[in-house]
Write a structure and sequence with these properties.
- The complex is a heterotrimer of chains A (253), B (388) and C (535).
- Chain A is an alpha/beta fold and 253 residues long.
- Chain A has 11 helices and 10 strands.
- Chain A starts with a helix and ends with a helix.
- Chain B has one domain.
- Chain B is mainly α.
- The radius of gyration of chain B is 23 Å and the shape is globular.
- Chain C has 3 domains: 88 residues, no CATH class; 102 residues, Serine Threonine Protein Phosphatase 5, Tetratricopeptide repeat (Alpha Horseshoe), CATH 1.25.40; 272 residues, ABC transporter involved in vitamin B12 uptake, BtuC, CATH 1.10.3470.
- Helix content of chain C is 69%, strand content 4%.
- Chain C is built from 22 helices and 7 strands.
- In chain C, a hairpin with a 5-residue loop joins β3 and β4.
- The longest helix of chain C has 50 residues.
- The relative contact order of chain C is 0.08.
- The chains are: A alpha/beta (253), B mainly alpha (388), C mainly alpha (535).
- Chains in contact: A-B, A-C, B-C.
- The interface between B and C is large, with 46 and 43 residues.
């Protein structure tokens, strides 16, 4: 099949008319959203707006009741499982930092590298120079070179957040989904994270969910505000934050 | 196994462990066979058989540790794989009896004659050949584990749910093997074995050889486990254990990994059962009892899960204690002790013996390193490399 | 006729002639008939049965029933006949006088199948007019089974006098059975008979109709339609029977699982010692009954009513103790909890074994729980029925408790959001202990009920633990209604599989089906959905 012929949209990520309900509760309600290649998008919204559920849908953890979810214009994500979607090139950082605590920082990155992930390949794996160079580079980017042999569990909260971003880098996906990257970080760390994401965005498409409006402002990208599982407003940070409805349900007066 | 996997898997603890097992595997049979019976150093035959049993349990414990300690799969049905391997070996030994049975039927085992069966059921074909039986020892538990795991892991049955259905699995097999018409000797199981590969199973020499073989199997099993856990696959397994869904989001097909270790582990359990049967002389359905599988898990917990050496050690220690207590006046209290062991180990010694020792060792090493650094600093030596 | 045969017949006739004259002169027809039993000749025996049964003598019944049981001894030499009682004492059959012992030469009067039918019929007619309703009913039923033509008169006579409704029905059926096999009965009579049997509609009626042999066309046709109607109604009844067995098994499963639905389903604590809580409840019942037996025998019928609250308190208190001393240290580590509680179950079993011994202990049924009654074609035992009612009552009370009491509200709050509940001022650790105590207490109550149908031994609990977990997991964790549906589904499925596959294979099949089901729906029938499940 010719890929070009079947490409339905130029978007990196295309959500249209997505619905999900849990036991009668509509978590996602007619959600439509488009992310262009190379774009960085910030998603804001009150608790329960469906931000995390949306990420669950994109990464295959939750199956929508109806609606279209297309990746890279061709792939219907609703039919694939998490592993397959990760293999396609969608990486995810969780709201609560999840790193492999009983393994070293270096091993965490090794596990994340986008090499052959089959059982056979990992069983007969031997380290290569290229791999260790990539790990060194990521370590440098996330400022954890010194801590490379420490157990991930012994890192500080902020360091874990960074390690998880580092794992995303090692994974080198086409699309990064980043859920609350600066929660629990100091102002300095928050600033550094914004810089890091902007750097990453030069080569990757990124979707960031964040509550911290200062951080969102610092990113300086297009903002989408979700409310009750649907898009409430979309635009620049100034447009969205002056929207009456957004102020009412989220920002407060 | 490629050479780099072998070298990678042999750290200091592993080497010491292998040396001890190898020494036992060689010295105990030699002492039993060569030294005079009144010698202080002579190991009596009954002890060789008893310790041979412990070694088989140690292999089973390794198998459980591989999946529980490294991948977080708590199987409460590994006794079933052990028993299936045992039955495969038992079937070979039954076929070797030939005309020496009570009924003297050259083909049918006694219990089939007793049940008035006219011909051998198809699933008994081939078990007169050792190579076939040996293959089945690996294949039958492996196949069951593969099918069971394929269904369970694909539909993401995890944690206690998996533990419960593994219990149900071994319970169902227990009920099935109790039935006479199932064709495996029903209640009585398979027993009255005569010889194995032409050697009398009761003979001292055979017992010594079986002991040595069990030690060899333990060594091989240990090396396989070490090779697995020290490879990148081992890191993936730990990742699955600690954060399964995170591992999925990194693009690992978690169910394949689980299926792989689960099947390998079941095959190991089958080998343990196959070596166990000729040494104890019987296999019956009670080996499938759900309680047996749980007991095997506690050996691993006592020794220290996720350490491999600890699993083997735990199996030997707990079973030695069991023999010691159940053979004396303390027999009525053994279940109290076993029960208390379960409770105390989970509450007070969650890392087990070896795990706790490792943690203490690492800590004291760190402390020694720290003191030598500060000592060096006081001496005015500025080269920090000295501390290492 | 071959010569030797005729010679034999002659000698037989001669000997009969001689015997007749050898007998004492005072003998009447009854005594003569009795003496014929000693001839060891089937036709003589048959004749004797007819005469004795029709004699009206009070010894007739004991003689015929002794004949049926092989207790009628005849001495071929003296031609004396004796009735040996079940107690070993004997009487002379002709006179009714007690005798010290039956001579060694005497042997039991032999019967063949034809004679056995005569005996049944004779017994039937002998007892058809007994003053006791139960005896009459039994007699009518035995005539129904033997359907000897000779009994027809007796049946008709009894039918004319009978006033009891059920005996009358039974007599009517007996009459129908006789007429169906009577060669000279009219077509109308036979058609009526078929209709009566069709109305009876059970396995016996079916057997008579299928085995009735050559009949007029109209009767054969009527019988065919009766057979198919009986067969379909029997199929319905067998389904009802299976359903009842299934409900009964389901109630036992529910009873065993309901406490687990609280500790495992609601709290998420996997308690492998749950079965032992059931066992403790059963032993509490045993102790209560022992005390009653030795001190207050009159209270025996109330023993279960006393045992229920006691079992709840005993098991509940031990549950709280376990939660405080072991389980609270293991929250969030389900696999460790599983191992620790398994160890605990070993300790509890061994403790009970040490105190009460390893063998089964006798727990009796109170009078209101023993016996059974018939419902259509099925038999329902009272203990099973009570257990079903009891289980549903426990379930209803538990639901109400969770919904309407303060503890229920707190329990739901803690299980849904522990941190929030704590910050609202709920003492979460107290709620944990009480919840676990509640689950254990209910297991104890289950033990009281199970002591009525199962062996009370230290291993009692073990046999329920896997089943209980299956029920809870199958029904869906955290949902009491799921447990209810799960228990009854599994119970009924099991009982419908049993006739097809046999008891053991049926159970294996159920286990395999559950294993497959869990693969398909890992969270059970009524699973909670959404993000909260993963947390």
């Amino acid at each position: 099949m010719n890929v070009m012929d079947t490409r339905a949209t130029s978007a990196m990520l295309y959500l249209d008319g997505v619905h999900v309900s849990f036991d009668g509760f509509h978590a996602i309600n007619n959600l439509s959203l488009t992310l262009e290649p190379g774009e960085m998008r910030a998603i804001i919204g009150p608790n329960g707006a469906g931000k995390t559920t949306m990420m669950d849908i994109i990464t295959g953890k939750t199956k929508p009741d109806e609606g279209t979810v297309l990746f890279d214009g061709v792939t219907d994500l609703t039919r694939l499982d998490e592993t397959r979607i990760a293999e396609l090139g969608i990486g995810r950082k969780f709201q609560k930092p999840t790193v492999f605590e009983s393994q070293t920082v270096q091993d965490n990155l090794l596990l994340a590298l986008n090499v052959d992930h089959s059982v056979k390949a990992t069983l007969f794996w031997r380290g290569s120079k290229a791999e260790s160079e990539r790990i060194d580079k990521v370590l440098e980017t996330i400022r954890l070179t010194e801590a490379r042999n420490r157990l991930a569990g012994s890192l500080s909260h902020g360091q874990k957040q960074w390690l998880e971003i580092g794992m995303l880098l090692a994974q080198d996906p086409k699309l990064l989904l980043v859920d609350e990257p600066v929660a629990g970080m100091t102002d300095v760390e928050t600033h550094l994270t914004a810089e890091l994401l902007k750097e990453i965005n030069k080569t990757h498409t990124v979707m960031v969910v964040e509550h911290d409006m200062t951080f969102v402002r610092e990113l300086g990208v297009k903002v989408t505000c979700l409310h009750e599982g649907t898009v409430l407003a979309e635009g620049t940070i100034d447009q969205v934050s002056s929207n009456e409805r957004v102020i009412e349900v989220y920002l407060g007066r | 196994m490629t050479p780099h996997m072998l070298t990678r898997s042999l750290d200091r603890g592993a080497t010491i462990f292998l040396a001890i097992v190898a020494a036992c595997g060689i010295l105990i049979p030699l002492s039993n066979l060569l030294l005079p019976a009144d010698s202080f150093l002579q190991v009596p035959t009954y002890l060789v058989a008893l310790w041979g049993k412990y070694v088989c349990y140690a292999i089973l414990a390794l198998a459980i540790d591989l999946i529980w300690g490294y991948c977080g799969i708590l199987s409460l049905g590994h006794g079933a794989f052990f028993a299936l391997g045992g039955y495969a070996m038992g079937m070979y030994l039954m076929r070797q009896i030939g005309t020496r049975g009570v009924y003297g039927n050259p083909i049918l085992p006694d219990f089939m004659v007793f049940l008035n069966w006219q011909k051998l059921p198809w699933y008994w074909y081939g078990f007169d050949m050792f190579w076939f039986a040996a293959l089945m020892v690996l294949f039958v538990p492996g196949l069951l584990a593969f099918c069971f795991g394929w269904l369970a892991f694909r539909s993401r049955v995890t944690g206690v749910y998996l533990s419960i259905i593994t219990q149900a699995m071994t319970y169902a097999l227990l009920l099935a093997f109790f039935r006479n018409d199932f064709g495996f000797g029903g209640n009585n199981g398979l027993t009255d074995f005569k010889d194995i590969l032409g050697f009398n199973v009761q003979a001292e020499g055979t017992r010594a050889a079986l002991f040595a073989l069990s030690c060899l199997a333990l060594i091989v099993g240990f090396l396989i486990c070490r090779a697995i856990v020290s490879s990148k696959l081992g890191k993936v397994l730990i990742a699955v254990r600690d954060a399964e869904s995170r591992t999925r989001f990194l693009g690992y097909r978690v169910e394949s990994y689980k299926l792989f270790v689960f099947t390998v582990s079941a095959c190991m359990a089958g080998v343990a059962g196959a070596l166990y049967v000729p040494q104890v002389g019987i296999i019956n359905p009670s080996e499938f009892a759900p309680g047996n599988s749980i007991e095997a898990v506690i050996w691993v917990a006592v020794g220290g899960r996720g350490t491999l050496v600890g699993a083997a050690l735990g199996a030997v220690v707990v079973n030695y204690a069991k023999t010691f207590f159940t053979s004396g006046v303390l027999a009525p209290y053994w279940l109290f002790m076993l029960g208390a062991l379960f409770i105390l180990v989970t509450l007070l010694l969650p890392k087990g013996i070896v795990g706790t020792f490792n943690a203490w060792w690492a800590q004291s090493k760190e402390k020694r390193a720290a003191t030598s650094v500060s000592a060096a600093a006081e001496d005015g030596v500025t080269e920090p490399k000295m501390a290492e | 006729m071959p010569a030797h045969l005729s010679a034999r017949l002659c000698s037989l006739a001669l000997s009969l002639f001689l015997i007749a004259f050898a007998l004492p002169a005072f003998a009447g027809p009854f005594e003569d008939a009795v003496a014929k039993f000693a001839n060891d000749d089937f036709s003589d025996t048959e004749e004797a049965i007819g005469v004795v049964a029709g004699s009206g003598n009070k010894l007739a019944f004991p003689i015929i029933s002794a004949l049926q049981d092989g207790r009628l001894m005849a001495d071929p030499d003296s031609k004396k006949v004796y009735v040996t009682g079940a107690d070993g004492k004997s009487i002379d059959a002709a006179t009714g006088e007690a005798v010290a012992s039956v001579p060694d030469s005497a042997s039991a009067v032999r019967l063949n199948n034809r004679l056995r039918r005569s005996v049944d019929a004779a017994l039937g007619s002998l007892t058809l007019q007994s003053p006791d309703v139960g005896t009459r009913l039994q007699a009518a039923q035995s005539v129904f089974k033997s359907h000897e033509e000779t009994a027809l008169e007796a049946v008709d006579a009894a039918l004319a006098k009978e006033s009891n409704k059920s005996v009358k029905t039974a007599l009517g059926e007996a009459r129908a059975a006789i007429l169906l096999f009577k060669s000279d009965a009219t077509e109308v009579e036979k058609l009526e008979a078929v209709a009566t049997l069709k109305a009876r509609g059970d396995q016996d009626a079916l057997a008579l109709l299928t085995g009735m042999g050559d009949q007029p066309d109209s009767v054969t046709k009527a019988a065919a339609s009766a057979i198919s109607s009986i067969q379909s109604s029997l199929a319905v009844w067998s389904t009802v029977q299976n359903a009842w067995y299934g409900l009964s098994l389901g109630s036992v499963l529910l009873l065993a699982a309901i406490g687990l639905a609280i500790t495992f389903g609601v709290m998420g604590v996997i308690n492998m010692a749950h079965g032992e809580m059931v066992m403790l409840g059963a032993y509490t019942t045993f102790v209560v009954q022992e005390v009653i037996r030795t001190r207050y025998p009159g209270l025996f019928d109330y023993s279960l009513l006393i045992a229920v609250p006691l079992a709840f308190v005993v098991a509940g208190a031990i549950g709280v103790l376990i939660e405080r001393s072991i389980i609270r240290f293991l929250y969030g580590r389900p696999l460790e909890t599983l191992l620790a509680t398994w160890g605990l179950s070993l300790v509890l079993q061994q403790a009970v074994r040490t105190m009460f011994g390893p063998t089964n202990r006798e727990v009796g049924n109170p009078s209101w729980m023993s016996g059974a009654f018939e419902l259509g074609q099925i038999t329902i035992t009272y203990n099973r029925l009570w257990i079903l009612c009891f289980t549903l009552a426990v379930f209803a009370i538990l639901l109400a408790m969770l919904r309407y009491t303060a503890l229920g509200l707190e329990m739901r709050a803690v299980t849904q959001n522990r941190r929030m509940a704590a910050s609202m001022g709920i003492a979460t650790s107290r709620v944990d202990a009480l919840t676990f105590g509640l689950g254990s207490g209910i297991a104890g109550i289950a033990g009281v009920a199970l002591s009525q149908i199962d062996n009370v031994s230290p291993n009692l609990g073990q046999s329920y633990i896997i089943d209980s977990f299956m029920v809870v997991v199958f029904g869906g964790v955290g949902n009491l209604w799921g447990t209810l549906v799960g228990a009854f589904t599994l119970g009924i499925a099991n009982k419908f599989l049993e006739p097809v596959a046999g008891a053991v294979l049926g159970k294996i099949a159920i286990l395999v089906l559950i294993i497959l089901f869990i693969q398909k729906r890992p969270r059970g029938l009524f699973a909670l959905k959404g993000r909260a499940v993963e947390a």
